[in-house]
């Protein structure tokens, strides 16, 4: 990594540390400090975990798809997760669903999601890698299919069960699921570490299939591993805050713009850190300064949508 | 030597190659020629394991292509396909640097950097080394891709239409450089070439293909004759001799 990359990463880390301190300590009175701190720390940790998961998964997915406009959510990864949740509630009932131990349930959901996403998107990417428009269309259609299936199953549920489904189908940074947090942190750390260890292979993967094979990369294996990691990370972020469509796009665009390099060893931490700064900073702004006058998820999606249009208009789709 | 033994290939229902058995001799420059759709590129891609082998066996320097680890094959042969559009934004020096990847797997040494500098110099890319791929012309990008394959430093170099996008001077320089590699560094080169006079002037060995079959193979003198070429391209083609090598008059 060159000096510039190290400086940027250091700057991002300092910025995140400063924001975190502000988030934790601002206006901390003499009252029940321990309670307030633990409340704030839980939320901070959740935001950081979500940002890391979304940032890393988007960079990974864009590399494997050789495309800077796609994100896992545009391709329907999170819709698949919501569909899984809905089917679980429908088959187990609310009591059964709520009665499952949170950690174990979450881990098995991740396993199921990884298997399904690797299978589905693996076939799509390995077969149609040379036909990007077809791949995008198929992904978008799959996303719509998953969403329609969830809403169909949602319709035949009774209203109580539907309320449970609803809580996982909309993005909100205000209510995170604290019981999942320890598992989510562990899973994200492991997946992030695995992605970091793959960084040199990801650089080669980004060259495209033919050059990568010529250089001796096990192309199929690496694609499936990357898709597996993406599925794990998307499950984490969707479970914690719900589906977020365009945030990853902003973060990945930011990382590529900041680094002006394609080295994944630099790109992955940049995406993770800048994502965390955006989420923590944004949430601080909306919660503490604007007094919840607007919600972060809506603004993030709005800005991300604009950025998506900008990328499309600049002809970055390839 | 590259041995190709009973190789057949289909894409969907369309047969591309029929039971091909041939070899590319070691220490020579071999040209694959033939009309469009003859299966030249497919054969080269099968040798370079860019496509999975459906039928038959291929070995490169004694390494069976379907059973040898792909990491090991990358140190035996480098293959450059025809379409080289790279999605990520790379500098020319970074692209050529990837040629060393099979040797260092992500941790380049001083030796690797020296070989990259050498490859850039060899293809007259040193002044462009810090430009991005999308800031150079098609021909310059093509040279950078060839330099990457060159930097891979393998016994075998397989190139699918490397002359695409190159002007006359650079095309000639490339062929001269490839023959240098063969003559002085003991490497072996296989390439698909459309402009037949480059094969006539530089190739040691020529394999002529048509409709998925091999029509003729041997020294340039034996294959590049009026009878073989007229039959191969189904058009009357005159061949004269120039400085002791065949010169094909296909354009008049």
Compose a concise summary of this entry.
Chain A is mostly helical and 318 residues long.
Features:
heterodimer, A: 318 residues, mainly alpha, ABC transporter involved in vitamin B12 uptake, BtuC, 0% strand, globular, B: 252 residues, alpha/beta, Rossmann fold, 2 domains, six-stranded mixed β-sheet, four-stranded antiparallel β-sheet, 10 helices
Specify the biggest β-sheet of chain A: none
Global mean pLDDT of chain B: 91
CATH superfamily of the largest domain in chain B: P-loop containing nucleotide triphosphate hydrolases
The string of secondary-structure elements of chain A, in order, is HHHHHHHHHHHHH
Question: What's the shape of chain B?
Answer: globular
Number of helices of chain B: 10
Instruction: Strand order, main sheet of chain B: write it out.
Output: 6-7-8-3-9-10
Class from helix and strand fractions of chain B: alpha/beta
Tell me what the CATH architecture of the largest domain in chain B is.
Answer: 3-Layer(aba) Sandwich
Q: Measured on Cα atoms, how large is the radius of gyration of chain B?
A: 18 Å
Principal-axis shape of chain A equals globular
Q: Approximately how much helix is present in the residues of chain A? A: over 70%
Task: Characterize the largest beta sheet of chain B: strand count, sense, and whether it forms a barrel.
Answer: 6 strands, mixed
CATH fold type of the largest domain in chain B = Rossmann fold
* CATH class placement of the largest domain in chain B: Alpha Beta
Distance between the termini of chain B: 37 Å
Q: Spans of chain B of 5+ residues with little confidence (pLDDT < 50)?
A: none
What is the radius of gyration of chain A?
19 Å
How many strand elements of chain A? 0
| Beta strand count of chain B | 12
Q: Biggest interface in this structure?
A: A-B, 25 and 34 residues
